[in-house]
Amino acid sequence: MLKTTSTGAATQFIAAAARGVASGAGTISEEAILPGAGRLGALLAEEPELVDAFLTLPQTERDAELFAALESAVRAALSHHPEYADLRHYAACVQSRLGRLERAVEFERAALAINPGYVAARVQLGRTLAGLNRLEEAIVEFEQAVAQGGDYADVYFELGELHRQAGHTSEARQAYERALRLNQSFDRAQRALQSMAAA
To answer: What is the pTM of this model?
Structure first.
Protein backbone atom coordinates (compact mmCIF):
# COMPACT_ATOMS: atom_id res chain seq x y z
CA MET A 1 0.00 0.00 0.00
CA LEU A 2 2.82 2.39 0.85
CA LYS A 3 4.44 1.78 -2.52
CA THR A 4 1.18 2.47 -4.38
CA THR A 5 0.61 5.66 -2.41
CA SER A 6 4.18 6.81 -2.94
CA THR A 7 4.03 6.15 -6.64
CA GLY A 8 0.74 8.03 -6.94
CA ALA A 9 2.06 11.08 -5.12
CA ALA A 10 5.26 11.14 -7.12
CA THR A 11 3.29 10.71 -10.34
CA GLN A 12 1.17 13.73 -9.39
CA PHE A 13 4.33 15.73 -8.80
CA ILE A 14 5.82 14.69 -12.13
CA ALA A 15 2.61 15.42 -14.03
CA ALA A 16 2.33 18.85 -12.45
CA ALA A 17 5.98 19.52 -13.19
CA ALA A 18 5.45 18.55 -16.81
CA ARG A 19 2.48 20.92 -17.05
CA GLY A 20 4.55 23.70 -15.54
CA VAL A 21 7.40 23.05 -17.95
CA ALA A 22 5.06 22.92 -20.93
CA SER A 23 3.15 26.09 -20.03
CA GLY A 24 6.12 28.11 -18.84
CA ALA A 25 3.75 29.73 -16.35
CA GLY A 26 4.72 30.49 -12.80
CA THR A 27 7.65 29.32 -10.76
CA ILE A 28 8.22 25.62 -10.33
CA SER A 29 8.67 24.61 -6.72
CA GLU A 30 7.86 21.52 -4.73
CA GLU A 31 5.39 23.39 -2.50
CA ALA A 32 3.55 25.03 -5.42
CA ILE A 33 3.31 21.85 -7.48
CA LEU A 34 2.10 19.37 -4.89
CA PRO A 35 0.79 19.90 -1.36
CA GLY A 36 3.19 18.25 1.04
CA ALA A 37 5.78 17.76 -1.69
CA GLY A 38 8.46 18.03 0.94
CA ARG A 39 7.79 14.30 1.17
CA LEU A 40 9.35 13.80 -2.25
CA GLY A 41 12.70 12.95 -0.70
CA ALA A 42 11.05 10.17 1.30
CA LEU A 43 9.32 8.91 -1.84
CA LEU A 44 12.60 8.82 -3.73
CA ALA A 45 14.21 6.87 -0.90
CA GLU A 46 11.46 4.27 -1.40
CA GLU A 47 11.70 4.29 -5.21
CA PRO A 48 14.83 6.08 -6.50
CA GLU A 49 14.02 5.01 -10.08
CA LEU A 50 11.19 7.58 -10.07
CA VAL A 51 13.92 10.10 -10.95
CA ASP A 52 13.89 8.51 -14.41
CA ALA A 53 10.43 9.99 -14.96
CA PHE A 54 11.80 13.48 -14.40
CA LEU A 55 14.75 12.82 -16.69
CA THR A 56 12.37 11.97 -19.54
CA LEU A 57 10.82 15.44 -19.41
CA PRO A 58 11.92 17.56 -22.39
CA GLN A 59 14.68 20.06 -21.75
CA THR A 60 13.41 23.62 -21.50
CA GLU A 61 14.53 26.93 -20.07
CA ARG A 62 12.79 25.89 -16.85
CA ASP A 63 15.09 22.93 -16.21
CA ALA A 64 17.10 24.83 -13.61
CA GLU A 65 14.03 25.38 -11.42
CA LEU A 66 12.59 21.90 -11.75
CA PHE A 67 15.85 20.02 -11.31
CA ALA A 68 17.00 22.25 -8.45
CA ALA A 69 13.83 21.14 -6.63
CA LEU A 70 14.56 17.53 -7.54
CA GLU A 71 18.19 17.91 -6.45
CA SER A 72 17.00 19.04 -3.02
CA ALA A 73 14.72 16.01 -2.76
CA VAL A 74 17.48 13.59 -3.74
CA ARG A 75 19.85 15.18 -1.23
CA ALA A 76 17.20 14.82 1.46
CA ALA A 77 16.86 11.14 0.61
CA LEU A 78 20.63 10.70 0.68
CA SER A 79 20.87 12.36 4.09
CA HIS A 80 18.77 9.50 5.46
CA HIS A 81 20.22 6.74 3.28
CA PRO A 82 23.85 7.56 2.39
CA GLU A 83 24.46 3.84 1.82
CA TYR A 84 22.10 3.66 -1.20
CA ALA A 85 24.17 3.42 -4.37
CA ASP A 86 21.14 4.01 -6.57
CA LEU A 87 20.38 7.34 -4.88
CA ARG A 88 23.94 8.47 -5.59
CA HIS A 89 23.55 7.36 -9.20
CA TYR A 90 20.34 9.33 -9.60
CA ALA A 91 21.93 12.32 -7.89
CA ALA A 92 24.58 12.12 -10.61
CA CYS A 93 21.91 12.05 -13.31
CA VAL A 94 20.32 15.18 -11.87
CA GLN A 95 23.70 16.92 -11.72
CA SER A 96 24.29 16.02 -15.37
CA ARG A 97 20.89 17.45 -16.33
CA LEU A 98 21.88 20.67 -14.54
CA GLY A 99 25.15 20.75 -16.50
CA ARG A 100 27.36 20.04 -13.49
CA LEU A 101 29.37 17.25 -15.05
CA GLU A 102 32.30 17.22 -12.64
CA ARG A 103 29.89 16.92 -9.72
CA ALA A 104 28.04 14.16 -11.57
CA VAL A 105 31.31 12.23 -11.89
CA GLU A 106 31.81 12.47 -8.13
CA PHE A 107 28.35 11.07 -7.42
CA GLU A 108 28.77 8.20 -9.89
CA ARG A 109 32.15 7.27 -8.43
CA ALA A 110 30.57 7.30 -4.98
CA ALA A 111 27.80 4.99 -6.21
CA LEU A 112 30.38 2.63 -7.67
CA ALA A 113 32.41 2.67 -4.46
CA ILE A 114 29.31 1.28 -2.74
CA ASN A 115 28.40 -1.14 -5.55
CA PRO A 116 31.25 -1.73 -8.03
CA GLY A 117 29.01 -3.94 -10.17
CA TYR A 118 26.38 -1.24 -10.75
CA VAL A 119 26.32 -1.32 -14.56
CA ALA A 120 23.91 1.59 -15.08
CA ALA A 121 26.09 3.84 -12.91
CA ARG A 122 29.22 2.80 -14.79
CA VAL A 123 27.61 3.48 -18.17
CA GLN A 124 26.40 6.88 -16.99
CA LEU A 125 29.86 7.64 -15.63
CA GLY A 126 31.27 6.83 -19.05
CA ARG A 127 28.78 9.16 -20.72
CA THR A 128 29.58 11.95 -18.30
CA LEU A 129 33.32 11.55 -18.80
CA ALA A 130 32.71 11.65 -22.55
CA GLY A 131 30.79 14.89 -22.04
CA LEU A 132 33.92 16.26 -20.38
CA ASN A 133 35.96 15.08 -23.40
CA ARG A 134 37.81 12.56 -21.23
CA LEU A 135 37.45 9.90 -23.89
CA GLU A 136 40.01 7.37 -22.71
CA GLU A 137 38.53 7.34 -19.21
CA ALA A 138 35.05 7.00 -20.69
CA ILE A 139 36.17 4.03 -22.78
CA VAL A 140 37.55 2.30 -19.69
CA GLU A 141 34.20 2.68 -17.92
CA PHE A 142 32.20 1.38 -20.90
CA GLU A 143 34.51 -1.60 -21.31
CA GLN A 144 34.20 -2.39 -17.63
CA ALA A 145 30.40 -2.07 -17.87
CA VAL A 146 30.41 -4.63 -20.67
CA ALA A 147 32.63 -6.95 -18.66
CA GLN A 148 30.24 -6.67 -15.71
CA GLY A 149 27.20 -7.72 -17.71
CA GLY A 150 26.24 -4.68 -19.78
CA ASP A 151 26.21 -6.76 -22.94
CA TYR A 152 23.67 -4.58 -24.75
CA ALA A 153 23.58 -3.26 -28.29
CA ASP A 154 23.28 0.39 -27.28
CA VAL A 155 26.20 0.10 -24.86
CA TYR A 156 28.41 -1.38 -27.58
CA PHE A 157 27.27 1.32 -30.00
CA GLU A 158 28.24 4.06 -27.56
CA LEU A 159 31.55 2.30 -26.95
CA GLY A 160 32.09 2.24 -30.70
CA GLU A 161 31.36 5.96 -30.92
CA LEU A 162 33.91 6.67 -28.20
CA HIS A 163 36.57 4.54 -29.87
CA ARG A 164 35.87 6.25 -33.18
CA GLN A 165 36.19 9.71 -31.63
CA ALA A 166 39.44 8.63 -29.99
CA GLY A 167 40.80 7.40 -33.33
CA HIS A 168 40.67 3.70 -32.43
CA THR A 169 39.33 2.47 -35.77
CA SER A 170 39.67 -1.26 -35.22
CA GLU A 171 38.10 -1.16 -31.75
CA ALA A 172 35.26 1.03 -33.01
CA ARG A 173 34.49 -1.43 -35.81
CA GLN A 174 34.47 -4.36 -33.39
CA ALA A 175 32.08 -2.55 -31.05
CA TYR A 176 29.68 -1.63 -33.88
CA GLU A 177 29.76 -5.20 -35.16
CA ARG A 178 28.97 -6.53 -31.70
CA ALA A 179 26.05 -4.09 -31.44
CA LEU A 180 24.70 -5.43 -34.74
CA ARG A 181 25.08 -9.03 -33.65
CA LEU A 182 22.99 -8.25 -30.61
CA ASN A 183 20.44 -6.23 -32.58
CA GLN A 184 20.43 -6.83 -36.32
CA SER A 185 18.08 -3.90 -36.92
CA PHE A 186 20.32 -1.37 -35.16
CA ASP A 187 20.43 1.20 -37.97
CA ARG A 188 22.88 3.59 -36.34
CA ALA A 189 25.47 0.85 -35.92
CA GLN A 190 24.95 -0.21 -39.53
CA ARG A 191 25.36 3.36 -40.76
CA ALA A 192 28.48 3.81 -38.66
CA LEU A 193 30.07 0.73 -40.22
CA GLN A 194 29.10 1.89 -43.70
CA SER A 195 30.59 5.30 -43.00
CA MET A 196 33.84 3.74 -41.82
CA ALA A 197 34.00 1.50 -44.89
CA ALA A 198 33.53 4.50 -47.18
CA ALA A 199 36.20 6.57 -45.47
So the answer is: 0.80
